[in-house]
Amino acid sequence: MTSSTIYFKEQLSETVYLMRLEAPLIARERQPGQFIILQVDDELGERIPLTIADADPEEGSITIVFQVVGRTTELLAQLEVGHKVAALVGPLGTPTHIENLGSVVCVGGGIGIAPLHPIAKALKAAGNQVTIILGARNQELLILEEQMTDIADEIIICTDDGSYGRKALVTEPLAEVCARENKPSLAVCIGPPIMMKFCSSTTKEFDVPTVVSLNAIMVDGTGMCGGCRVTIGGETKFVCVDGPEFDGHLVDFDNLMIRLGSYKKQESNHVCRMEQYR
Amino acid sequence: MSTLTPKERMAIPAQAMPEQDSVARRSNMEEVAQGYTAEQAKLEADRCLQCKNAPCISGCPVGIDIPGFIQAIAEGDNAKAIAVIKENSLLPAVCGRVCPQETQCQAPCTVGKALKSVEKAVSIGRLERYVADWERENGLIEAPVAKPPTGKKVGVVGTGPAGLTVAADIRREGHDVVLFEAFHKPGGVMIYGIPEFRLPKKIVQQEIDTLVAMGCKLETNFVVGRTRKIDDLLEHDGFDALFIGTGAGLPRFMNIEGENLVGVYSANEYLTRSNLMRAYDKGNAYTPIFESEKVAVLGGGNVAMDAARTAVRLGAKEVHLIYRRTEVEMPARVEEVHHAKEEGIVFHMLENAQRILSDERGWVAGIECLKYELGEPDDSGRRRPVEIPGSEFEIDVDTVIVAIGNDSNPLIRQTTPGLETNKWGNIVVDENGKSSLDKIYAGGDIVLGAATVILAMGEGRRAAAAINEMLAG
Ligand SMILES: Cc1cc2nc3c(=O)[nH]c(=O)nc-3n(C[C@H](O)[C@H](O)[C@H](O)COP(=O)(O)OP(=O)(O)OC[C@H]3O[C@@H](n4cnc5c(N)ncnc54)[C@H](O)[C@@H]3O)c2cc1C
Ligand SMILES: Cc1cc2nc3c(=O)[nH]c(=O)nc-3n(C[C@H](O)[C@H](O)[C@H](O)COP(=O)(O)OP(=O)(O)OC[C@H]3O[C@@H](n4cnc5c(N)ncnc54)[C@H](O)[C@@H]3O)c2cc1C
Ligand code: SF4
Ligand code: SF4
Ligand code: FES
Ligand SMILES: [Mg+2]
Questions:
Q1: Which CATH number is A47's domain given?
Q2: Which GO terms label this protein's molecular function in UniProt (chain A) (predicted)?
Q3: Domain count, chain B
Q4: Nearest ligand to the C-alpha of residue B51?
Q5: Based on the domain organization, do B173 and B207 belong to the same domain?
Q6: Which residues does chain B have within 8 Å of residue A225's beta carbon, measured at their own beta carbons?
Q7: Among A222, A224, A255, A263, which would you mutate to test the B interface (most chain B Cβ atoms within 10 Å of its Cβ)?
Q8: Side-chain half-sphere CA neighbours of A184 within 13 A
Q9: Mean pLDDT in chain A?
Q10: pLDDT value, residue A268
Q11: Last residue of some domain: B94, B110, B138?
C-alpha cells in the first residue's frame, strides 16, 4: 500500500524498536515466515525488507521489530506515532511450513528473535512441544523475552557476557537439546548468519533437520532482480521468492555473508555522517 | 506537397537526428536523441512517396496509417497527424523512441528499398516521436472522456505498456478500472528498465497522469498473488474481469562458476537500482550501486546495451560487451549499438564468458572468456557459434552484468489454480487474449516472452476489445 500510518512505537533496547503500522491488506493475508518491504520515502528512499513479527487483521495492522544498523533503519526509528512511511508492500516470501512434528527447538539470536516469534507461535499452535533458546550479546539487547516465554514449553536464555541467563553461545544448549534421547524433529534457527551457520553445523551432527531464515540484500522482493540470490546445495535460489527459509544444512553461509558486505563502503560513508550528527 | 515529384522526394537527404555530444553524454543521464526540429520534420515527411500500397503499414504491429500521418506533418497539420496515430497507438512518444523500426515499419519502406539501405528509409519512428512530443510540449494532451458509468469493474495487473493500454481502452467504455502495480511507481519496464537517456520518465508519467485523469484508479505496492490472489479479486472484491500484464521479470543467469560473487548483477537489478531507485543520483538516493572501474556486460540485446551505457554514465572507465555471435545477429536496435560504440563501449563479438574469477574476498576479479567461430546454421537459420578449444583468455573487470534475457515470473501462475501456461511459464491465451480461465485475460511479455513495447501494446488493445465486448454482452 501507499503510505501507512504508525499506530504504536516502543523502544525495546538501545537500538531495537517495535512498531505497529497500518496495513489492512497485509494483515489479512500474511502468514508466519513472511516479510514486507518498506520505504520511508518513495522518491529517493531505498526498499528494506523487514519480517512481519505479528499482525492484527481486526485493527488492520502489522508489527515490525527492527534494529537500527544504518541510514534507513535510523530514519525509521526517528518517526513517531501518527507519522507515515511512504510505502509498504507485502506479504512477501514463502510462508513457513507449519505442522505438528512432536517436538521442535527454536533458536533466536539478537534481532532474529523477532522473525522467530511468529514461527514459534504457529508451531506451538499446531500442537508441537516447543523448546526455545534465545541468545543476545547482553541482557540489555535481549528482546521479546516475555512473549517467547508465553509460547515456550521450555526456555533457555544465554548472553555472551553472562549478564543474564547462561554465559554461553546458543550452540551450547542447542547441542544439549539435540543430544537428548527424545531429540527434536526440527530446529528453526534465526539470527545473524554466523549464528545460523554454527547452529546448522551443530544440528547436522545430530541429524536434526534445520530451517534457517536468510536475510540477503533485496531490491524488489518479488523475484525480479536476482540480487537476493544465495547458493543452496550448489544451486542458485532467490531468497525473496524461494525463501526466506531454507534447509540450513545446504546453505552456503560464507557466500551469504560476503554478499551482505557488498555495499559496506557506501554504507560506511553514511555511518561516518551519522557520527557527526551525534 | 503535391508539387514535389518522386524523384525530388528521393533526393532530399535523410534527416539526421540531433544528438547530445558523445563525450558530454557519458557523464549525464539526459536523453541522447534530442528530436527533430520543425524544419527537419517537414523535410523528412516530404521524403515519403505516399505509396498506394503502403508497405510500411504492414510492418507496424499495430497498423498505424503511416502515409496518412506523415502527409499531415508535411502539410503542417501536427494535430491531425497525432490524431491519425492515436487511432492505433496509445503510446506514440514511447514507441517513436523505442520501437525497433529498422525491422518493423521502416524495413519494407519503398524509399529505403530504392536507396538500397534501410537506414535511408523514411524515419517513421522519429516523425511519430516528433508529433507526440509536439502535442505534449504544447500541453495539448487531453484525457479521453469516459462514457457514462456501467457499474462494471476491471482489474489490470501490471502497469507496463500492455496494462496501460488495456486500462485506457476499457475505461473509455465507462467501466471502472483499477491498476495494480507491485512496485512503488507505475510504468513497468519503461520506468525500471529502459534508462532515462533513452526514454525520459516524464513521458511515461504523462501517460499515467492521463489514465488517472480519465478516472482509472492506481494501486501501487500491490503484488497480485501475495497482497491479494486472482481468485479473491474475482470472487470477493467485485471484479468482473482481470487482465494480467505482469511482464517477463525473472532474470536468467549463465550458471557458470563465480556468478554469486560480489559485483555480479543481473541487468534487471543493475538497471532497477539505477533507474527506479535512482542510484545514479549518488549524493541523494539511498539505494547503493557498485562503483565500478571495469565492467563486463554479457549479452547482445537492448537490455545489454542499456546496462553497458548505464555503467558508462555511472563512471566506469572501461565497459566490455561480450556476445556469443556476431553483430549481425545482435538483437539490439541498430541505433543503440551505434550509440554504445560512440560512447566507447568495447564490443567483443564471438566470445563468451566461461567463468567469473574471484579475489581473496569473494569479489569479482576478472572474467575468463572463450572465443567462438560461426558453424553450421541452427534451427533458427542463424549460424551456430562453436567454441574454439584452447582459446581461453581473461579480461580484467570488477563488475559483471548478466543480460541474457528474462523468463516469466511464476508468482501468478503458482497462486492461480487452473491458469494454463506453456513450458516457459508464459500464460496461454486464445486469439482474443483470453486465458484458460473465465474472465481472465493476459497479454504482453507474460504471454509473448520478452518482446517489445509495441507488441505489448497491440496485445493490450486486442484483450481490451474482447473484455469490452464480454462486458457489453
Ligand atoms: C527477509 C528479510 C527479513 C528481515 N527482517 C528484519 C527484521 O525483522 N528486523 C530487522 O531489524 N532487520 C531485518 N532484516 C534486515 C534489514 O532489512 C536490514 O537491516 C536493513 O535493510 C538495513 O538497512 P539500513 O539502511 O538501515 O542499513 P545499511 O547501513 O544500509 O545496511 C546495513 C546492512 O544491512 C544489510 N542491508 C542493507 N540494505 C539491505 C536491503 N535492501 N535488504 C536487505 N539487507 C540489506 C546489509 O548487509 C548491510 O551491510 C531482514 C532482511 C531480510 C532479507
Ligand atoms: C532494459 C530493457 C530495455 C528494453 N528496450 C526495449 C526497446 O528499446 N524497445 C522495445 O520495444 N522494447 C524494449 N524492451 C522490452 C519491453 O520493455 C517489454 O517488451 C515491454 O515493456 C513489455 O510490456 P508488458 O506490459 O508486458 O510488461 P512490463 O513492462 O514488464 O510491465 C509489467 C509490470 O507488471 C508488474 N508486475 C509484475 N508482477 C506483478 C504482480 N504479481 N502484481 C502486480 N504487478 C506486477 C511489474 O512490476 C511491471 O511494472 C526492453 C526491455 C528491457 C528490460
Ligand atoms: S508504432 Fe513502431 S512500428 Fe508502428 S509506426 Fe510507430 S515506430 Fe513504426
Ligand atoms: S513505404 Fe515509405 S515511402 Fe511508402 S508510404 Fe510508407 S513511409 Fe512513405
Ligand atoms: S529481491 Fe529481487 S529477486 Fe529477490
Ligand atoms: Mg541502507
A1: 2.40.30.10
A2: 2 iron, 2 sulfur cluster binding; flavin adenine dinucleotide binding; metal ion binding; oxidoreductase activity
A3: 3
A4: 4
A5: yes
A6: 251, 266, 268-269, 272
A7: A224
A8: 30
A9: 93
A10: 81
A11: B138
Under the banding of pLDDT at 50, 70 and 90, the label for residue A276 is very low
A53, A139 in Cβ contact below 8 A? no
Residues B279 and B415 in one domain: no
How do residues B118-168 score in pLDDT, each as one tens digit?
Answer: 999 999 999 999 999 999 999 999 888 899 999 999 999 999 999 999 999
Summarize the confidence of residues A186-210 as an average pLDDT.
Answer: 97
Residue among B57, B60, B97 to mutate when testing ligand 3 (max atoms within 8 A of CB): B60
Whether chain B has a CB inside 8 Å of the CB on A258: the answer is yes
What CATH number is attached to the domain comprising B419? 3.50.50.60
Q: Find out whether the beta carbon of B157 lies less than 6 Å from any atom of ligand 3.
A: no
Torsion of CA A90, A96, A99, A105, to 10 degrees: -130
What is the CA angle A121-A127-A130, rounded to 5?
55
Question: Residues enclosing ligand 1, CB less than 6 A?
Answer: A 35, 46, 48-51, 65-67, 69-73, 111, 114-115, 215-218, 244, 260, 264, 267
Residue B243: inside a domain: yes
Cβ contact A259–B277 (<8 Å): no
Q: Identify the domain containing residue B351 by its residue range.
A: 251-402
Which pLDDT does position B144 carry in this prediction? Answer: 87
> Does residue A31 belong to any structural domain of this protein?
yes
Is residue B25 in some structural domain? yes
Query: Do A77 and A20 belong to one domain?
Result: yes
Q: Which residues fall within 8 angstroms of residue B466, CB to CB, at 6 or more apart?
A: B432, B433, B434, B441
pLDDT single digits (tens) A220-248 = 999 999 999 999 999 999 999 999 999 99
CA-nearest residue to A262 within chain B is B262
Given a cut of 70, whether residue A35 has pLDDT beyond it is yes
Which ligand 1 atom lies nearest to the CA of residue A114?
A: 8
Give the end of a domain, one of A189, A213, A237.
A213
Is the distance from CB of B296 to CB of B364 less than 8 angstroms?
Answer: no
Residue A225 Cα to ligand 5 middle (Å): 5
Boundaries of domain holding A193? 103-213
**Measured CA angle at B435 (ends B85, A34), to 5 deg:** 105
What is the distance in A from the centroid of ligand 2 to the CA of A206?
Answer: 48
Which DSSP symbol is given to B119? G
Task: State the complex-level ipTM.
Answer: 0.95
Q: Which ligand is nearest to the CA of B93?
A: 3
Any domain includes B145? no
User: Which of B219, B227, B281 is closest, CB to CB, to A29?
Assistant: B227
Q: Which residues are near ligand 6, the ion (C-beta closer than 5 Å)?
A: A 70-72
Average confidence (pLDDT) over B354-370: 96
Q: Specify the number of domains making up chain A.
A: 2
Residue of B259, B286, B409 to mutate, testing the A interface (most A Cβ within 10 Å of its Cβ): B286
> For B119-124, which contacts have Cβ atoms below 8 Å and span 24 or more sequence positions?
B119/B14, B119/B334, B120/B14, B122/B44, B122/B47, B122/B48, B122/B56, B122/B70, B123/B14, B123/B15, B123/B17, B123/B44, B124/B56, B124/B60, B124/B66, B124/B70
B237 and B264 share one domain? no
Q: What is the A75 CA–ligand 1 centroid distance (Å)?
A: 13
